[in-house]
Amino acid sequence: MDLGIKGKRALVCASSKGLGLGCAEALAEAGVDLVMNARTDGPLQEAAEAIRKRYNVDVVAVAADITTEDGRAKVLEAAGQVDILVNNAGGPPPGLWSDWERDDFIAALDANMLTPIALIKALVPSMMDRGWGRVVNITSQSVKAPIPVLGLSNAARAGLTGYVAGTSRQIAPSGVTMNNILPGIHATDRAASLDAGVSKQQGITVDDARAAREATIPARRYGTREEFGATCAFLCSQHAGFIVGQNILLDGGGVNATL
Ligand code: NAP
Q1: Cα of 187 to ligand 1 centre, how many Å?
Q2: Is 226 helix (H, G, I), strand (E, B) or coil?
Q3: How many angstroms separate the alpha carbon of residue 91 from the centre of ligand 1?
Q4: First to last CA, the chain
């Protein structure tokens, strides 16, 4: 399917690995020029070069912490005007509900709520002026079904989801759509490190830890970054112009709910 976005320009935050990289690759396959970002320069440059070679699109790679004001300023300066914004960053650490203090919440809100909001505020007005734009926020299945040890994530991402629900309806008349993708368990470094933690804690192998988690998913496997990226690229396509303010769950059926 031709996604109809060849020649558009996208900022994909936190995209040297994992789900962000999947989104960058799928957009590049559709002919979209990219601004990619991550904190660590080496893997970011490698990912950018691989995409340039494979898809023959223009890629600017900016090493910066997107959750800081300075990092965002650096990325925004390099990005200039973009048509597509994919918001992403690392997730907050796990823990116990009673242990988190104000500073822990502020850090989680900064990373997973206020950072995407700042980027939306910086980039959406010019999309509206030009009458076309796409915003996709990577959140989590925890928005629909809270993960007890990820209370900081449950809280910050729910806050972003409320903001997106209201804002998406206000920007839609200008041809700009905004939606969220909610990942369940995907085979990325983050999933591998969670499996390693369970393996250590329970004295089982990493493979057994993964098999136990896969058994909890109706699809009986982890999602892939390619599947995730393809969904993101579709939401950014010409065909998705009537999808506004939605929360698309990609979880292999993991959340057991009728709606
Ligand atoms: P990942 O494989 O660990 O990749 C994270 C990517 O983001 C890397 O490129 C990393 O590069 C970059 N990054 C992290 N923090 C950053 C920051 N502050 N500024 C700029 N770049 C940053 O993670 P993932 O699995 O793709 O997860 C992406 C998001 O989805 C996370 O918020 C995660 O909590 C959420 N999520 C993931 C899953 C899953 O199963 N994978 C499920 C639900 C939700 P550097 O480290 O070099 O910065």
Answers
A1: 12
A2: helix
A3: 6
A4: 28
User: 92-143, pLDDT tens digit by residue?
Assistant: 998 999 999 999 999 999 999 999 999 999 999 999 999 999 999 999 999 9
Q: What is the pLDDT of residues 1-34, one digit of tens each?
A: 999 999 999 999 999 999 999 999 999 999 999 9
Second-level CATH architecture of 9-184+225-249? 3-Layer(aba) Sandwich (3.40)
The residue whose CB lies within 8 Å of the most ligand 1 atoms, and thus the one to mutate among 21, 188, 221, 255, is 188
Closest ligand 1 atom to Cα of 115: 18
CA distances from 96 to 93, 100, 148, 194, 214 (A): 10, 7, 8, 16, 24
Query: What are the sequence ranges of the domains in the chain?
Result: 9-184+225-249, 185-222
If you take atom 15 of ligand 1, which residue's CA is the nearest one? 90
